[in-house]
Write a structure and sequence with these properties.
The chain is α/β, with parallel strands linked by helices and 554 residues long. The chain contains 22 helices and 23 strands. α11 crosses α19 and α15 packs across α16.
């Protein structure tokens, strides 16, 4: 049956460009995954700019699709000749500028670049709306402030997913979720906020930038058109098919849905697009997104405002630091476990001690170590017993640090045991992102009825999920089928485009068709654990002075 669907082109393909991997997911029209293709890549620091070359982007697109073709051939014994629906997603933000002939005018600047401080500050003040460093408009305005010569030749400024979409379809568009990381969005019109557009254009005149740099374009002239989920955004052209599939087997004609950013596809993949729902991705970094019924009442520099793929406002709390320091501690315990095992099995401990950390850890099942330590943490005191840690390997914007120093501290009367030690590190993995969520849920009073969790933090059943429920005081659900992540979410958006007329909304489509029978577990908050987490957070906030001193001293 799956083979026939592939042959007949009854499929949807989502391709997502992540920071280290490009991934393609081919599904049938029920959303079931048929095949997966991947391509690994890595950004480069060139002249102090985090970038991928245009050649690398094209090679990644072709390589990922070729991997998918091979997977289909291996599993089903057929070639992909036609596809029903397609969509491209990618890491959001950044800066790609082209002239009228489609020539790239300057190196692609990814979201990682923070060389836009002056621009972001000026625009935040101008708009009275938080403009993060990584947003496309920050990059564009910084190029203007820096007087870069290429500004006069700009005909199109866009993001990575929109660029790929244009290559394959010839259409200069992007989805509203991705657009919300380019420029502020008005959720009532589902377009760029016109008042702010006018302010930006007036700023360029008032400051004399158009005259001094020799350009006359206005902002809307150079940005991609905004579309919402369910709208058609072009078709795969002959040139696009030839670019994507060098074998020549793929036919033109696949219908494209609007391209999207990885935040939007993550919302779709976790069924978190309806107002009063949210999702938290907790791993190396941690970010939480709450879908709002209305805009926040005022500017908060700690909170990013984006949208769902169908235009609802979303408040995002993003923490740079998640579980990396916690993982290092687990690795330390793994080394100790190996030494202990060696003693009781009469191995040569001196030889074992010569092994480096990675080799030592490999001798024991690291998954068992995680499970033992995580589950044992449940025995700890509700506030982690007076123990405190910060896993700040890098700066943390929410708490106001440009650098980080991982540290562990405790009061003399703290209840120092293994359970509390691990609980303090698990709690602190949510510390910064909780401070942002407290602004959204407590200070702004926004409602959140349920949150979906995904990422490594939730891998040990019943631990991370329970701690998050205590942190946000809301039910937390972990689903069984969100493992394919963003590219699967992109493929679902392709299906929704084809079947939009059958559903009242994107949320209804996901609820009734995709997630109706999905296995999931939900943990509700326990009042005592909520209180305990709040006591820990009181110590966390007071202890930021310790982190500050560590940065200044170490």
């Amino acid at each position: 049956m799956s083979k026939e669907k592939i042959v007949n082109g009854e499929t949807s393909l989502g391709i997502e460009f992540g920071s280290t991997r490009i991934k393609a997911v081919l599904t049938d029209y029920s959303g079931a995954v048929l095949a997966i293709g991947t391509y690994d890549w890595e950004n480069s620091l060139v002249d102090n700019i985090w970038t991928y070359s245009e050649e690398e982007i094209l090679a990644g697109l072709k390589g990922c699709y070729s991997s998918l073709v091979s997977a289909v051939d291996s599993k089903y014994g057929v070639k992909i000749t036609k596809i029903g629906a397609m969509g491209i997603s990618a890491m959001m933000h950044g800066y790609l500028a082209f002239d009228k002939d489609g020539k790239l005018l300057a190196p692609f600047q990814t979201w990682r670049n923070s060389n836009t401080g002056k621009a972001a500050d000026e625009l935040t003040e101008l708009f009275d709306f938080n403009i993060p460093l990584r947003w496309t408009i920050s990059h564009l305005y910084q190029r203007i402030l820096d007087g870069e010569k290429h500004v006069k030749d700009i005909a199109f400024v866009t993001t990575l997913d929109s660029f790929i979409h244009c290559l394959l379809t010839g259409e200069k568009i992007t989805g509203i979720g991705d657009a919300s990381g380019i420029f502020p969005i008005d959720s009532k019109t589902c377009d760029y906020d016109q008042t702010m557009v006018d302010k930006f254009d007036k700023l360029l005149d008032d400051k004399g930038y158009r005259k001094s740099l020799g350009f006359n374009w206005k902002l809307r002239d150079i940005l991609p058109k905004v579309l919402v989920a369910g709208e058609k955004a072009g078709q795969l052209t002959e040139a696009g098919a030839a670019l994507l599939d060098e074998s020549g087997n793929l036919q033109a004609g696949a219908v494209f849905c609007p391209s999207e950013g990885d935040a939007g596809t993550g919302m779709v993949a976790t069924n978190s697009v309806a107002p009063k729902t949210g999702n938290i991705s907790a791993g190396t970094s941690t970010f939480a997104m709450i879908v709002l019924e209305k805009q926040l009442s005022k500017l908060h520099r700690e909170i990013d405002m984006v949208t769902t793929p169908d235009g609802y406002p979303v408040a995002m709390s993003h923490a740079n630091n998640g579980t990396s320091d916690l993982n290092s501690w687990v690795g330390l315990f793994a080394e100790f476990a190996n030494l202990l095992m060696a003693k009781y099995s009469n191995e040569d401990i001196e030889e074992l001690e010569k092994l480096d950390g990675a080799e030592a850890q490999s001798r024991v099942d690291i998954g068992d170590i995680y499970e033992i330590l995580y589950k044992n943490s449940l025995k700890g005191d509700l506030d982690a017993g007076g123990l405190l840690s910060y896993g700040y390997l890098s700066g943390e914007g929410i708490t106001g640090f440009n650098e980080g120093r991982p540290l562990f501290a405790r009061r003399p009367d703290g209840n120092m045991n293994l359970a509390n030690f691990m609980k303090s590190h698990l709690y602190t993995s949510l510390g910064a992102v909780k401070m942002g969520l407290d602004i959204i849920l407590k200070e702004e009073g926004m409602a959140c009825e349920s949150i979906n969790g995904h990422g490594g933090f939730f891998k040990t059943e019943g631990v991370g999920q329970r701690y998050l429920a205590a942190a946000v005081n809301a039910p937390v659900t972990v689903m069984a089928n969100a493992g394919e992540g963003g590219p699967w979410g992109m493929a679902l958006l392709g299906i929704y485009m084809l079947e939009k007329d059958n559903y009242a909304s994107l949320s209804e489509f996901l609820e009734k068709k995709v997630f109706k029978d999905v296995a999931k577990t939900t943990v509700c908050p326990d009042a005592k654990e909520v209180e305990g987490f709040e006591r820990f957070m009181d110590s966390y906030k007071k202890g930021l002075a310790i982190e500050k001193a560590a940065i200044e001293s170490l």
